[in-house]
Amino acid sequence: MAYVKIVSRLKGSFCHLLLVIALWLSSYQNVVALPLLPKPGQTPSTSELPSSPNSATFQPIDISPAMIPHYPFSGEPLPPMYPSFPKTYDPVLTGRCPVNFSVISSITGKTASDCTQSLSTIVGNVICCPQFNSLLHIFQGFYSNHSDTLVLQNVVAGDCFKDIISILASRGANSSLSSMCSVKSSNLTGGSCPIKDISTFEKAVNTSKLLESCSTVDPLKECCRPVCQPAISEAALQISGIKMTLSDNKNIVGAPSEVDTLNDCKGVVYSWIARKLRFEDANTAFRLLSSCKVNKACPLDFKQPVEVINACRNLAAPSPSCCSSLNAYITGIQKQMLITNRQAIICAAVFGSVLQKAGVMTNVYELCDIDLKDFSLQAYGQEEGCLLRSLPADLVYDNSSGFSFTCDLNDNIAAPWPSSLSVTSLSLCAPEMSLPALPTSQTLGNSGCHLGGVHFLLSTILVFVSTLLY
After folding, report:
1. Quick check: helix, strand or coil at residue 33?
2. Does 120 or 82 have the greater pLDDT score?
3. Which GO terms describe its cellular component (predicted)?
């Protein structure tokens, strides 16, 4: 696998730490536009194309024509990263779901765009499934506006769920969202949660505190100093009937049935929040909460790297066979999906820990020039991977350039090699909680840290800090 290295290898442990911090804090972006070409001889009309979703929080970015790769051979099959124009049609509804879906068309349109048939599998973990779950929460709350309960009955839930899937598919979304995102119609029913009606809920829960905590979710603080998440957990515990103490930042430990009940009750709490907020405000809040969850784990599937272990064990110097095996392995995993910058850090630590436990003690990431971007899908037209931002992002549709998404950073940041065999102590909140002291110019001069032959100046770090973005 060939990699084009935009920057030289950044050396020095302290410099490496600063660059990882810079990745967390940076708001620099790069756009990769994926043109959508019609089938040969077919020109879709404007009415057939879905409109770009509107969002007051995540505005579509300007796409420079220079950033759009062109596929000149219109008579040949399109590459995998070139989806065709989505076919739209009138959905066939059951007629048994008592909801006017046109009222929530802005959210269903955004979900259809984020879960487009051609790209949903590679952005499912970060973009599609979080948005699909948000739609279900909002639909549940919208439904409750015309009833005295926060959930749907089983039969109605089944019909409404079918209608939601049909509407999304009619606008170009993947029709297999239910299995891809592990969601069922029962998610709309409240499951085993004992309190589901609005009156009893508002008597059992401090609704003023809940609404104050979740009406505006702070994107800079929520994932590390949560406010809304513990409020939701507390409300779910209050309506669950389960007697246990909720500890901050710790998972609730209980019998499987109790865990299921608490999760079902969280769905009821989400429904009440959605009932109180405007659709877009609820969607923004739910997507931010989802980003806190998805960025805590690596979604990649690491198969046993036997060849890498055999080639890289007991290595003290660069080895062509080791790097060849490592690059071949990473080429395989990076085909799975697009991941965020924070997920890439965790994935690099997890895979490094796997290698260490198997006897590969040398930092092979450094020896073989492995960057964080190498753990994410390769964007067409570029030879380095694309990392998505840790904040929620949407696919942007344009009639001329097709779907595009925002990549984080242009620099190739070295993948972090774990300092121990365990990654359980890895925390991505330390930089947000307490930034380390900035280095002096003398320290920088001796650190061996260079960027394209130019010293990595203190002012660069200050730019990252001043443009703090979670």
Report:
1. strand
2. 120
3. plasma membrane
415 CB-near residues (< 8 Å, 6+ apart) = 344, 348, 352, 365, 370, 371, 372, 374, 375
User: How much helix, strand and coil, in percent to the nearest 5, is found in the chain?
Assistant: 45, 5, 45
Closest CA to 264 of 195, 347, 199: 195
Question: What residue has token string 């964007």?
Answer: 379
Among candidate residues 358, 341, 339, 356, the one with its CA nearest the CA of residue 301? 339
Distance, in Å, from the CA atom of 126 to the CA atom of 402, rounded to the nearest integer, reads 20
Q: Tell me whether strands 339-340 and 450-451 are parallel, antiparallel or unpaired.
A: unpaired
Residue range 426-461, pLDDT digits in tens:
677 865 443 334 343 333 333 333 323 222 222 333
What is the SS3 assignment for 142? helix
In the block, tokens 């089944």 appear at 158
Is the pTM higher than 0.85? The answer reads no
Residue 318 to residues 36, 284, 315, 374, Cα–Cα distance (Å): 42, 47, 8, 19
Shortest CA distance to 89 belongs to which of 178, 166, 174, 177?
Answer: 166
Cα pseudo-dihedral 114, 119, 124, 127, rounded to 10: -30
What is the Cβ-side half-sphere exposure of residue 78, based on CA atoms within 13 angstroms?
19
In 313-457, which residue ranges form alpha helices assigned H by DSSP?
A: 320-333, 341-357, 364-367, 430-433, 441-446
DSSP 41-108: T----GGGSPPPPP-SSSPPPP--GGG------TTSPPPTT-PBPPP-------S-----GGGGHHHH
Nearest to 292 by CA among 182, 130, 448: 130
